[in-house]
Q: What sequence folds into this?
């Protein structure tokens, strides 16, 4: 089997998950499939051929799953499934059970419909017959089957957890719903009634709580997805005018593909909104721009990301110019292939779009404007590449500064701008908290993670909306447990081949899908239909189960609404994926019709199906206005542009202090993830920290910082024995100030240190520490073995040493803390050292204890959380980027002047 493709990787992961969820050993799969193949070996028809093929593939996959489990064991890593499986194994030990029973007299299992088979088995092992246990759950809310939750657990609970006398556990109804109005609940009851009684709680009927009133239900059907999104935005604006706060409105989508047009309409109407979950965030334009830049930084072959950047709001390269560059890349590819002759894998030799952009001078016919913008783009990319060793949060922040999205949003008077800023802050927080399961938090690992999240159909990350007064946009799966005054459910549409809601296209059949364990080995086999030899009949029965799963999802989303529920659909949708086309309509699904036909439902609009797809014309309209003008219409506030206004403001020597209102006036959100540099900044001056991290002001790219970047990069390569890869001329390309003489002097200074030629234990090592509610991240320059044992942690500085280190010592303290807590070193096994290449000095210190460091760090983080950002002027003001804007700093500098 070709176990190299992404499909096969996902098959292995799925089969491994199934093994964990059902406590099945991969060898049991092999045994089952071998026996099964033996049984059907004489059946030679076509259908049997498919089944035989799946069985054979599964035997091979099971072998890979076994090797995968061994590899995890060898690396001493666990995934979520392993944790449950191992906990279940531990629960076999009678001593563990006795200890559990001695500590807990009763057990209450909440949301039991969300448990998987392995969890139920573990609980059963811990709680023998007669033990007082209560499970609370609702089989109609079993919506996580795709990630292992089994409906069987709740339905079989009365037989599995029997009373002391062997009788079944009792079922106590909890039918009064304290959330939704009566009409909404009646609709929910009718919708779920289509599920077979064998797969529901017997006789369950939701009853409403009198005080909640009737509630209203409405439907809308529009010609196309954009019109549906506009209708939704209009409905929200109207509801808000009638007094519903933004935060009490939610748009709950079956699929992430519905987000983009809705978000566009919300922005157009200045409706504040928040997209919940990383998968949704990755669809926001401001985040797409940043991620595209990071993707191109990581891999120049990411042509789609590069094209998005070039066409995006920062560089605005028109189609014509972009086509010329693409043609240049194609011509280069052709000529490369001709020169290299027949290749086994010609894809390995590709002249990427990025290379054509880098060599834009050679592309004929480009407009002057495009040339200037491409030159700027190349400069930005070069500068960012030189900084790619930085910790991820810092790198992302710099990338963000360079695309200028934050400045644009800050200058935007739109009410939607704060939501966009919030999206970005949220996304940066997620980057800061990123930790791969294995290896280091590198840019490559981050991009792989983001790619996986973007490709996943369902949101694979838990997410919680904030308390901000904004409309919440999220997937239905994320909305479980939440409630809102107004809930809008878009996309109740289904076509002949494409489906949005319900979507039964994911129906799988273990007899033809090798990535699933055989149904007979499942712990919940009894809720599955029996395979009697007729594959199409069996598939139809599985589709009924899948349709029921979708119905439960619909039931869950309907019951999120307190007072008003609006269900919408359209006839035409933008295609999703490679197999859908703009020529295939969907139209309202049976769910939409069932709601429309429910008594007393308000029909907002019910449009006929247009024969032609209106989205084709909409796309054409957008294409016609492209390329947009490089300069937008003059802004009333900044008629000469924001950059000119900033330059003019900086020229004022005595700025108007009223431009800088008291910081306490509007405290913005405090970041949960901080890097070591920002902690040092806080220790130097909380006000400087405020302007660097909390509400960043533009700052200059300093020569010192650029030199520092290059020197670190060179020393790291030197430590690996690859010093010659970076030569003095390389430095010249990174900026005119990085002159050869300076670099030669610093390199010589490094070679004179006692560390030159000594291989470090580790270099440029990322670290991540959890301190209270914060994550502190950084990167240790180098760690060397001490002569008498232990470690010496070294931080390279390209400048001169100060008379005495102050706040800078925090940097070494944090590294010492990491060495103690991550690698288990004792304080007396550590030395921490600054090496100043600028004046060829070094300062070495013994490490402080983890307790001492944590106490001080806690103090600083608590002060940050409490919003304490007073200025503490001192010598650091001389090098502070913000001294022009800081009255305290200017006063200190004036008093200090000779
Ligand atoms: S100028 Fe001085 S006091 Fe003002 S923010 Fe900078 S370091 Fe702090």
A:
């Amino acid at each position: 089997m070709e176990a190299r493709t992404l499909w096969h990787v996902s098959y292995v992961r799925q089969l491994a998950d199934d093994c964990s969820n059902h406590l099945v050993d991969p060898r049991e799969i092999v045994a089952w499939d071998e026996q099964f193949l033996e049984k059907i070996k004489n059946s030679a028809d076509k259908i049997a051929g498919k089944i035989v093929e799946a069985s054979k593939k599964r035997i091979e996959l099971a072998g890979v799953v076994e090797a995968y489990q061994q590899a995890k064991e060898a690396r001493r890593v666990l995934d979520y499934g392993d944790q449950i499986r191992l906990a279940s194994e531990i629960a076999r030990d009678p001593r563990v059970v006795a200890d559990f029973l001695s500590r807990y007299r009763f057990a209450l299992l909440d949301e039991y419909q969300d448990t998987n088979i392995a969890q139920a088995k573990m609980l059963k092992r811990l709680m023998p017959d007669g033990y007082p246990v209560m499970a609370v759950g609702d089989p109609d809310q079993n919506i996580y089957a795709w990630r292992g939750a089994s409906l069987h657990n709740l339905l079989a609970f009365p037989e599995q957890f029997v009373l002391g006398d062997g009788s079944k556990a009792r079922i106590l109804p909890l039918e009064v719903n304290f959330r939704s109005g009566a009409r909404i609940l009646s609709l929910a009851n009718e919708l779920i009634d289509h599920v077979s009684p064998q797969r529901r709680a017997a006789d369950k009927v939701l009853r409403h709580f009198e005080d909640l009133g009737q509630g209203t239900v409405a439907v809308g059907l529009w010609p196309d997805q954009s019109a549906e999104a506009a209708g939704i935005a209009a409905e929200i604006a109207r509801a808000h005018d009638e007094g519903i706060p933004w935060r009490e409105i939610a748009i709950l989508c079956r699929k992430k593909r519905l987000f983009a047009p809705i978000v566009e309409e919300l922005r157009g109407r200045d409706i504040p909104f928040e997209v919940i979950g990383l998968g949704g965030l990755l669809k926001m334009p401001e985040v797409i721009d940043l991620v595209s830049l990071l993707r191109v930084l990581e891999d120049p072959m990411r042509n789609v990301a590069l094209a998005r950047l070039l066409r995006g709001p920062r560089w605005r390269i028109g189609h014509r110019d972009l086509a010329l560059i693409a043609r240049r890349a194609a011509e280069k590819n052709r000529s490369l292939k001709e020169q290299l002759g027949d290749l086994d894998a010609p894809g390995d030799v590709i002249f990427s779009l990025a290379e054509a952009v880098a060599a834009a001078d050679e592309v004929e016919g480009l407009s002057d404007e495009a040339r200037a913008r491409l030159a700027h783009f190349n400069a930005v990319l070069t500068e960012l590449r030189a900084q790619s060793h930085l910790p991820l949060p810092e790198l992302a922040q710099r990338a963000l500064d360079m695309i200028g999205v934050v400045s644009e949003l800050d200058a935007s008077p739109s009410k939607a701008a704060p939501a966009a800023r919030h999206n970005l802050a949220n996304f940066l927080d997620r980057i800061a908290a990123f930790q791969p399961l294995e290896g280091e938090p590198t840019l490559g690992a981050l991009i792989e993670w983001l790619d996986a999240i973007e490709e996943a159909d369902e949101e694979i990350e838990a997410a919680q909306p904030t308390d901000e007064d904004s409309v919440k946009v999220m997937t239905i799966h994320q909305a479980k447990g939440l409630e809102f005054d107004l809930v809008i459910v878009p996309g109740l549409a289904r076509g002949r081949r494409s489906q949005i809601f319900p979507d039964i296209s994911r129906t799988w059949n273990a007899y033809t899908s090798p990535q699933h364990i055989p149904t007979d080995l499942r712990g919940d086999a009894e809720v599955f239909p029996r395979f009697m030899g007729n594959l199409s009949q069996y598939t139809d029965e599985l589709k009924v189960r899948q349709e029921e799963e979708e119905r439960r999802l619909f039931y869950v989303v309907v019951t999120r609404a307190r007072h008003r529920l609006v269900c919408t659909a359209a006839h035409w949708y933008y295609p999703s994926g490679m197999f859908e086309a703009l020529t295939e309509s969907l139209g309202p699904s049976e769910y939409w019709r069932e709601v429309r036909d429910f008594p007393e439902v308000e029909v907002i609009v019910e449009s006929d199906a247009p024969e032609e797809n209106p989205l084709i014309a909409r796309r054409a309209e957008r294409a016609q206005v492209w390329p947009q003008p490089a300069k937008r219409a003059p802004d009333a506030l900044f008629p000469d542009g924001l950059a000119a206004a900033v330059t003019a403001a900086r020229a004022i020597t005595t700025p108007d202090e009223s431009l800088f209102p008291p910081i306490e006036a509007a405290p913005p959100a405090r970041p949960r993830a901080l890097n070591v540099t920002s902690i040092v900044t806080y220790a130097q001056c909380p006000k400087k920290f405020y302007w660097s991290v909390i509400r960043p002001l533009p700052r200059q790219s300093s020569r010192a910082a650029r030199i520092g970047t290059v020197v670190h990069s060179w020393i790291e390569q030197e430590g690996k024995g690859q010093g010659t890869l970076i030569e003095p001329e390389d430095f010249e390309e990174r900026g005119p100030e990085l002159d050869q003489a300076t670099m030669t002097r610093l390199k010589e200074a490094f070679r004179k240190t006692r560390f030159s030629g000594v291989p470090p234990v580790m270099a440029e090592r990322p670290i991540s520490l959890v301190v209270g509610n914060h994550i502190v991240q950084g990167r240790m320059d180098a760690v060397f073995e001490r002569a008498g044992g232990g470690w010496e942690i070294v931080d390279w500085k390209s400048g001169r040493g100060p008379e005495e280190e102050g706040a800078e010592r925090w940097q070494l303290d944090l590294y010492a803390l990491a060495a103690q807590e991550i690698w288990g070193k004792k304080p007396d096994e550590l030395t921490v050292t600054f090496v100043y290449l600028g004046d060829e000095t070094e300062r070495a210190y013994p490490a402080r204890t983890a307790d001492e460091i944590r106490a001080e760090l806690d103090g600083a983080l608590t002060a940050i959380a409490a919003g304490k950002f007073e200025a503490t002027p001192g010598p650091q003001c001389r090098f502070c980027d913000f001294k022009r804007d800081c009255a305290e700093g200017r006063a200190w500098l004036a008093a200090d002047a000779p």
Remarks:
- The two ends are 78 Å apart (CA to CA).
- The first strand starts at residue 107 and ends at 109.
- The longest helix spans residues 46-75.
- Residues 345-349, 623-633, 659-667, 721-738 have pLDDT under 50 and may be disordered.
